[in-house]
Specification:
Strand order of the largest sheet: 5-4-1-6-7-8
Structural class: alpha/beta
Bound molecules: magnesium ion
Helix content: 25-40%
Number of helices: 8
Order of helices and strands: HEEEHEHEHEHEHEHH
Radius of gyration: 16 Å
Number of strands: 8
CATH topology: Rossmann fold
Shape: globular
Largest sheet: 6 strands, parallel
Number of domains: 1
């Protein structure tokens, strides 16, 4: 039975995963629930999910390239990326033309589109998503985005969606069990 949340368009997602060497993530509405706490002094606050964060740390540790591309700019995104081990050179903020940023990364890192995955939730992410080898979206992404995603998480954005995306990628590459192996090494339940 086909899982309706994992559309098989453009050749099916599973076969695409093996080639992925780089994964990019939008921030608002993917790594967060899309809400933006804007204070009168102009500072922003965002709510991230700890399980998403742990998964992104594993993704960095796996050796894949990991980047964030966001149209907004805020200090909290820098702080969050640093916590996760995503280098400042891979944090692309105020990216008003996300596709241009993506194309520059491909050129600089010698990547083909088929070797990249991108997670987005809204129209501005579509130019990258239709280029990338693997397009991922949270369950509550815009309908136009859901329609073009190869993988759609069951969780909503900011509530574990990124965790599912990372697990889908690393499981598909046969690396998830090894990366989490250390956690399960202790004695099992009594
Ligand atoms: Mg977004």
């Amino acid at each position: 039975m086909t899982n309706s949340r994992q559309p098989e368009g453009r050749g099916g997602p599973a076969g695409r995963v093996a080639r992925i060497r780089w994964a990019g993530f939008d921030v608002d509405g993917v790594m967060t629930d899309g809400g933006i706490w804007l204070a009168a002094d102009g500072t922003e606050a965002k709510r991230f999910h700890s399980r998403d964060g742990h998964a992104l740390k594993l993704l960095v540790r796996s050796g894949l390239g990991v980047a964030v591309i966001t149209g907004r700019r805020s200090r909290v995104v820098e702080l969050r990326a640093a916590e996760l081990g995503i280098g400042i050179g891979s944090v692309h903020q105020a990216a008003h033309d996300k596709l241009a940023v993506y194309e520059r990364i491909l050129a600089e890192e010698g990547l083909s589109p088929e070797e990249t995955a991108f997670a987005g939730d809204d129209m501005v992410d579509l130019p990258i998503m239709v280029r990338a080898g693997l397009a991922m979206a949270p369950a509550d992404a815009a309908p136009e985005v859901l329609a073009r995603a190869h993988f759609v998480s069951r969780s909503k954005a900011g509530h574990g969606a990124v965790r599912e995306m990372v697990e889908f990628l690393l499981r598909g590459q046969g690396r998830w069990d090894a990366l989490i192996g250390g956690y399960a090494a202790g004695p099992g339940p009594a």
